[in-house]
Amino acid sequence: MNAQTVTSVPAYAVPAAGAPLERATIPRRPVGEHDVLIEIKYTGICHTDIHRAGDETGGIFPMVPGHEIAGVVTAVGSGVTRHRTGDRVGVGCMVDSCRECDNCRAGLEQFCANGAVETYNSTGRDSGPTYGGYSTHIVVDENYVLRIPEGISLDEAAPLLCAGVTLYSPLTHWNAGPGKNVAIVGLGGLGHMGVKIAHAMGAEVTVLSRSLRKKDDGERLGADHFYATSDPATFEQLAGGFDLIVNTVSANLDLDAYLSLLKTNGTLVNVGAPPAPSRVTMFSLMGGRKTLAGSLIGGIAETQEMLDFCAAHGLGSDIEVISGEQINEAYERVLAADVRYRFVIDASTIPAG
């Protein structure tokens, strides 16, 4: 593959809103002075991919989803200093930002005041659409490429680039650790990483799930306790017990009920995004000086910190590896909650379109 010319690479693309994914060929820009060419090995399937493929959040079509990318560097630009050919690397939810605003300068590129360039379904610096990781290769500026430590396999590392940092960031920001009681709401692609990470941080971890169906899994992943939220007694028994609750589900919950589970000065952080506005009673916040907050992935430095943390503690995502031709089936299974806990596409199975 000639790094100095625009290349065409195989991919799976959504041709139009709501349409099934199909084989395609997409362009990749030439490797510039500070660019890295990555041969993609694995790409995770995020619930966001499904929302965007259905045009639920606004889409640019044809769309190549995928922002949980793990692979190997195969070429670098003349000015690249962060990565070398052969390095194990990852790409998460963004591939560029303005680099000049206060947030970018503070390492909070995900909150770029001028809008971060997302890995797919965005407009790149070349004014063309960005295409994601359901493909065999990608070209990314070196500053937005992460190093994947040897302690994590590439397939289990891929989902960490979104799901991992989405949980690591709030758990770190709100000081999960020894002496803290932390609840994770939902045990899915996000929630299972929240349990693993909070446990590794030394917190006492409780899973709040609709039923007890996944109780054994939760305990295997590191949960100290597991409760069913469909049982009203749960909210009576656990009232005022948590320093931090991280809500991973994308459904409208009774926020007042969950706020009642917080200690004084406790925080309920939302990383799941329900489709409809949520309601909360102000007295649920005022009584106990509680905080209702949100969190969105993490900056580049924090994402690297998360990868290093996971490697040091032997953490990876629980995955099911699939071939490219199984992506549409995987979408259906995600919507049916039939995955434990993340689908990962083997990029070697993506044929030419």
From TrEMBL:
It is an enzyme of class 1 (oxidoreductase). Keywords: Metal-binding, Oxidoreductase, Zinc. InterPro entries: ADH-like_C, ADH-like_N, ADH_Zn_CS, CAD-like, ER, GroES-like_sf, NAD(P)-bd_dom_sf. CDD domains: CAD1 (cd05283). Its EC number is 1.1.1.2. This is alcohol dehydrogenase (NADP(+)). Residues 18-345 form the Enoyl reductase (ER) domain. The keyword Protease does not apply. It catalyses: a primary alcohol + NADP(+) = an aldehyde + NADPH + H(+). PANTHER family: ALDEHYDE REDUCTASE. Its cofactor is Zn(2+). SUPFAM superfamilies: GroES-like, NAD(P)-binding Rossmann-fold domains. It comes from Streptomyces flavidovirens. Pfam families: ADH_N, ADH_zinc_N. GO terms for molecular function: oxidoreductase activity. Belongs to the zinc-containing alcohol dehydrogenase family.
